[in-house]
């Protein structure tokens, strides 16, 4: 903490990993050598830069840009860009740290990174977003590259932003290479990348349920968020016969007790992706639903909860409410959405709980598949990508079970994911010496 003052999210993420990994190191002393864990908790490189841009009224704004290059032991840095007013060094370091273990879990050769800006795309015109992205990439291009660091999207960075960023990189560098993932289909994007994180989260939940002879079909599901991850988690739940009861944004949540079926979800996608509107507008078309301003959905009775919005959005009290209401499975779609108190409670009650670094790894895994396709200058069919995604999620589940199952048969997916992710990075760092 002394080394990283004012970085609570980063310290929270490192503490969680250390708690899982230290007992493992005691049993496997070779991983205690050469200050491995300490080295992992120090970014290889942090770049911070000024991002000036002009709005539609010609007024000048100044934002701050970041790229955290956390760990390149097993491959080029890889991890998303977040544009949100809450972005700061602590949040991006926590995300980059998590990303290192997550990428390792995917079994693909990708190191860990993360970046972004405190820019708020909400309420900005397309042209304002474009000018911001161009200014951001003018600096970022110095530190990224197809074999060095390949960013992707995250909160506030979707297809529109990736397009503008890619265009500026190409213009400055005069090269068409796979320096970003999440690209549009017409210029090197992969099928299934938009769906991958949400779908992957549901595939992982399916695997967890299977260990207790349960399935998604017929289950009620509470989802937070209404962005990329939440939308496709909802889509897959609906396809598998589950009933989605809620979705949310930073204004509050909607509760539709009849279930948000496919047509209703299509309307949410229209509101959020095309109109760039607010989730409460759902009620204009479906007045039977209710809107709960400034509230989170965890008080709604459900079998499964999928937090898919942001970090620390589900606390200890809310965890207790969920379990008291009969919730049997919580799958993190977002990064670190559950507080340490919430996780402790889920583990104590032995419900099925998956940490984001395992259950939301489908997004970056499919980004890895996009990189492979770019290198091949070829593109796979949707089924091919979806099958690979599905089998990667199965493998991650398997790895968690291998490292996280206690003597009594209970699988602690937090422990399993952290140790499985750690081992591969640690082996590579040991082999590469003290660098
Ligand atoms: P989007 O920007 O598409 O959506 C984010 C959603 O979360 C929106 O509904 C947003 O509401 C809501 N939200 C954001 N911040 C807050 C907040 N402080 N309080 C309440 N609600 C909030 O992002 P993604 O869906 O891509 O990302 C969601 C989460 O998933 C993040 O934690 C991200 O790191 C993680 N993730 C994403 C991956 C991806 O492939 N996209 C991969 C792996 C993890 P509003 O519209 O009001 O801002």
From TrEMBL:
> Any idea which positions bind substrate?
78, 99, 102, 153, 367
Which PROSITE patterns does the protein's record reference?
GLFV_DEHYDROGENASE (PS00074)
Which residue stretches, if any, does this entry annotate as coiled coil? Answer: none
Q: Which GO molecular function, any one, fits this protein according to its record? A: nucleotide binding
Binding residues annotated for NAD(+), in chain numbering: 197, 228
The alphabetized UniProt keywords are: NAD, Nucleotide-binding, Oxidoreductase
Tell me the ranges covered by the Glutamate/phenylalanine/leucine/valine/L-tryptophan dehydrogenase C-terminal domain, including all copies.
190-433
Q: Where is the site Important for catalysis?
A: 154
GO biological process, any:
glutamate biosynthetic process
Q: Cite the active-site annotation.
A: 114
| Endpoints of the signal sequence | none
Its cellular-component GO annotations read: cytosol
- InterPro entries per the record? Aminoacid_DH-like_N_sf (IPR046346), Glu/Leu/Phe/Val/Trp_DH (IPR006095), Glu/Leu/Phe/Val/Trp_DH_C (IPR006096), Glu/Leu/Phe/Val/Trp_DH_dimer (IPR006097), Glu/Leu/Phe/Val_DH_AS (IPR033524), Glu_DH (IPR014362), Glu_Leu_Phe_Val_DH (IPR050724), NAD(P)-bd_dom_sf (IPR036291)
Q: Could you give the subunit structure recorded for this chain?
A: Homohexamer.
Q: Which family does it belong to?
A: Belongs to the Glu/Leu/Phe/Val dehydrogenases family.
Name of the protein in its database record: Glutamate dehydrogenase
Per the UniProt record, the lineage of the source organism begins with: Bacteria, Pseudomonadati, Bacteroidota, Flavobacteriia, Flavobacteriales
């Amino acid at each position: 903490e002394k080394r990283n003052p004012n970085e609570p999210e980063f310290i929270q993420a490192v503490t969680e990993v250390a708690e899982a990994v230290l007992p493992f190191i005691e049993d496997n002393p070779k991983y205690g050598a050469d200050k491995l864990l300490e080295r992992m908790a120090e970014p290889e490189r942090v770049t911070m830069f000024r991002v000036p841009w002009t709005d539609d009224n010609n007024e000048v704004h100044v934002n701050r840009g970041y790229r955290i290059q956390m760990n390149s032991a097993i491959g080029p840095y890889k991890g998303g860009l977040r544009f949100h007013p809450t972005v700061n060094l602590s949040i991006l370091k926590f995300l980059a740290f998590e990303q290192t273990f997550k990428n390792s879990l995917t079994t693909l050769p990708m190191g860990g990174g993360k970046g972004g800006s405190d820019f708020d795309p909400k309420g900005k015109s397309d042209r304002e977003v474009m000018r911001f992205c161009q200014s951001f990439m003018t600096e970022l291009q110095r530190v990224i590259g197809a074999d060095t660091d390949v960013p992707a999207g995250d909160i506030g960075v979707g297809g529109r932003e990736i397009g503008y960023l890619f265009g500026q990189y190409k213009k400055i560098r005069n090269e068409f290479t796979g320096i970003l993932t999440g690209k549009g289909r017409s210029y090197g994007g992969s099928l299934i990348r938009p769906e991958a994180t949400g779908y992957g989260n549901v595939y992982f939940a399916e695997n967890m349920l299977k260990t207790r002879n349960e399935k998604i079909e017929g289950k009620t599901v509470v989802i937070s968020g209404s962005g990329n991850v939440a939308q496709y988690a909802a889509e897959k739940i609906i396809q598998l016969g589950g009933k989605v009861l809620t979705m949310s944004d930073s204004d509050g949540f909607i509760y539709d007790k009849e279930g948000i079926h496919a047509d209703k979800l299509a309307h949410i996608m229209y509101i959020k992706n095309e109109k760039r509107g607010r989730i409460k507008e759902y009620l204009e078309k479906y007045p039977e639903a209710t809107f709960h301003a400034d509230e989170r959905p965890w008080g709604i009775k459900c079998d499964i909860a999928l937090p898919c919005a942001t970090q620390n959005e589900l606390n200890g009290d809310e965890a207790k409410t969920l379990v008291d209401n009969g919730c049997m499975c919580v799958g993190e779609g977002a990064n670190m959405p559950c507080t340490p108190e919430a996780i402790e409670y889920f583990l104590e009650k032995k419900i099925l709980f998956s940490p984001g670094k395992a259950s939301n790894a489908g997004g970056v895994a499919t980004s890895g598949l996009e990189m492979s396709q770019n290198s091949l200058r070829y593109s796979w069919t949707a089924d091919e990508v979806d099958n690979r995604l599905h089998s990667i999620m199965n493998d991650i589940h398997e790895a968690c079970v291998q490292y996280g199952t206690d003597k009594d048969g209970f699988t602690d997916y937090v422990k399993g994911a952290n140790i499985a992710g750690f081992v591969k990075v640690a082996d590579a760092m040991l082999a590469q010496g003290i660098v």
